[in-house]
Amino acid sequence: MKEQFNPWHDVTPGTNLPDVVKGIIEIPKGTRAKYELDKESGMLILDRVIYSSMYYPANYGFIPKTYCDDKDPLDILILTQIDVVPLCIVPAKIIGVMRMLDGGEADDKLIAVSAGDPSVNHLNDISELPPHTVLELRAFFEDYKKLENKAVVVEDFLGREIALEILQDAFKLYEETFEG
């Protein structure tokens, strides 16, 4: 019997790390559907429909072969001019990180731009984003769970260097947890 393919464990995170990383999209930009990777099957599951009349401001997913203290792969928001279909692999350039607390626990979101989208791939650091884009990301993540009576605190937006340190830590924790 053939083992089931799981994008978290079976997709390489990239061959040109850390310059370009592969992000696997769970949630396309512009939707209210909160899809999550079912860790056991590798399929997507509809976790819920966002209670608020808000829409994801960026394509949202994870980086394969990473692991974080929240028991999930490392989250990534990939900025691009299009809505990317779920389970699509998007080569992306990390430009920063949004540090946040979800229910009191650390839940960092790397911020990246699609390496194949000329409308954004010239950006190299979060400081180059239009200020309104950062405000949109902050507002979405601070507000999207309010009607569920859950607290999310966006602490700070930090640059590429810190984001790459977080990525390396997530690779190391994955290796220790699943391969060590």
Automatic annotation (TrEMBL):
Main location: cytoplasm
Cofactors that this protein relies on: Mg(2+)
Residues where Mg(2+) 1 binds: D70, D75, D107
InterPro entries referenced in this protein's UniProt entry, alphabetically: Pyrophosphatase (IPR008162), Pyrophosphatase_sf (IPR036649)
GO CC, alphabetical: cytoplasm
EC number(s) per entry: 3.6.1.1
Reaction(s) this enzyme catalyzes, per UniProt: diphosphate + H2O = 2 phosphate + H(+)
Pfam families linked: Pyrophosphatase
Metal-binding keyword on record: yes
GO molecular function, one term: magnesium ion binding
Gene3D superfamilies, per the entry: Inorganic pyrophosphatase (3.90.80.10)
Subcellular location: Cytoplasm
Quaternary context: Homohexamer.
Protein task: Catalyzes the hydrolysis of inorganic pyrophosphate (PPi) forming two phosphate ions.
Family from the record: Belongs to the PPase family.
Descriptive protein name: Inorganic pyrophosphatase
Gene: ppa
